[in-house]
Design brief:
TIM Barrel, 14% strand, binds beta-D-fucopyranose
Length: 450
């Protein structure tokens, strides 16, 4: 399959990786002193998770990480992007440190390095300690300081071995869905809470960058943004302004202040009451690369009864889906990469790309996922096209290594290139894992010839 992709011309040092996040794979939520996160609470809330499941066990990565690292070795990745669980390291979010939690990531990091896989550590992939939420969480300005202290703990402990650091994963998803649209923890729907969360998370990012820069010699620091073109549903006039507002909240609320030093216009006006003198300088800190998570464009429509007047709409009828189950627009990915390059002028790392499915193990014990291979092929081609047109893409990470706990939907949608049987926890690499291994090999071989 990789034969059909142009594997030449990747820059030297291009990083091929896989991504996961702590809450989605680790399980062991009450083990070795871990504290509760807002997602544990969400799982216990009636109706919080679509299929009524929880992440108490998830993929049991907390115990099975050696097997998972062996799978990464087999696929041949250069890097593993994972997240550190704040409530595992600081069970109450601040104050007393949990040595057993710290030791878990020591083992993981050391083992990755021994096997030639570079650890890329993300400080925050949505699992805020519950005790901090009880003190106001992201709606409290203090949360930026709590985050900076947590970042310092991680930098001091792992900074001798981990050089690739990410402050946050998908700022706009967890702030919008957590504080304005009730699709994620903590499930608040309030304009002021959403605005405060945006600003305080931006402050936390800036403080985190400063901490990492001062404590980790040679750190390469990025932040991960989900950027997806927002298209007014059916091109209708009444959807244009809602789409423009969603575009600010989804695509610009974080990279614009962090990298350009200002909020986009509609948001700037609304957020002003929460901004103090000097804040923009605190937020706009120099980082080394732009992390992009991209799945597909968003169609937006007016919904006067929602918190902000917009809602998710439908793709045009008969849009191509390549068997994936949602409309696929690779050109939106190419355009996004070029737009990021033009607007923010940083090297780009694609930190998540992939698609879900309901993959099953067949009678021969194999998992065939041709739709995922089709999706990856098309998206690789779009990325290559963007690179030829000037996008400075330095790495690509598949979401995800493993089927895992897919937040509010539970276990229904499988995003892994490795199948996980959630009864037995058995791992079975899918056809797409082999496809990815072949792609990496071909790209390396092409690189060594050039
Ligand atoms: C992204 C999240 C990741 C996973 C994928 C499918 O928005 O960062 O944790 O849920 O979507």
């Amino acid at each position: 399959m990789s034969d059909s992709i142009d594997t030449t011309g990747f820059p030297a040092g291009f990083v091929w990786g896989v991504s996961t996040s702590a809450y989605q794979v680790e399980g062991a939520v009450t083990e070795d002193g871990r504290g509760a996160s807002i997602w544990d609470t969400r799982c216990k809330t009636k109706g919080g998770i679509g299929d009524g499941s929880n992440a108490d066990v998830a993929c049991d990565h907390y115990h099975r990480w050696p097997e998972d690292i062996a799978l990464m070795r087999d696929i041949g990745v250069d890097a593993y992007r994972f997240s550190l669980a704040w409530p595992r390291l600081l069970p109450r979010g601040k104050g007393a440190v949990n040595e057993k939690g710290l030791a878990f990531y020591d083992r993981l990091i050391d083992s990755l390095l021994e096997r030639g896989i570079e650890p890329w550590a993300c400080l925050y992939h949505w699992d805020l300690p519950q005790t901090l939420h009880d003190l106001g969480g992201w709606t409290s300005r203090d949360c930026a300081g709590w985050f900076a202290d947590y970042a310092a703990l991680c930098a001091k402990r792992y900074g001798d071995r981990v050089k690739r650091w990410i402050t946050f994963n998908e700022f706009s998803v967890f702030t919008l869905f957590g504080y304005a649209i009730p699709w994620a923890a903590p499930g608040i729907t309030d304009r002021a809470a959403h605005l405060k969360a945006i600003h305080h998370v931006n402050l936390a990012h800036g403080a985190g960058v400063d901490v990492l820069r001062s404590l980790v010699p040679g750190a390469s620091i990025g932040a991960i943004h989900n950027r997806q073109k927002i298209i007014p549903e059916h091109g209708r006039e009444e959807n244009v302004e809602p789409a423009a507002l969603l575009d600010e909240h989804w695509n610009k609320a974080f990279p614009d202040p962090q990298l350009l030093g200002h909020y986009p216009p509609r948001l700037a006006e609304a957020i002003e009451p929460y901004v103090q003198p000097g804040d923009m300088a605190r937020i706009c800190r120099s980082i080394d690369w732009f992390g992009l998570n991209h799945y597909g464009p968003i169609f937006a429509r007016a919904e006067p009864n929602s918190t902000w007047g917009y809602w998710w709409g439908d793709a045009p009828p008969n849009s191509p889906d390549y068997g994936v189950g949602w409309a696929i627009f690779p050109d939106a990915f190419r355009e996004e990469l070029l737009d990021i390059q033009r607007t923010y002028r940083l090297p780009i790392v694609v930190t998540e790309n992939g698609c879900g499915g309901s993959d099953v193990v067949d009678a021969e014990g194999r998992v065939n996922d041709p739709h995922r291979i089709a999706y990856f092929t098309i998206y690789q081609e779009a990325m290559r096209a963007a690179m030829r047109e000037g996008a400075d893409v330095r790495g690509y990470f598949v979401w995800s290594l493993l089927d895992n706990f897919e937040w509010g939907t539970g276990y229904g949608s499988r995003f892994g290139i490795v199948h996980v049987d959630f009864q037995t926890l058995k791992r079975t690499p899918k056809a797409s894992a082999r496809w990815y291994a072949d792609l990496i090999k071909a790209a390396r071989a092409a690189g060594s010839q050039s």
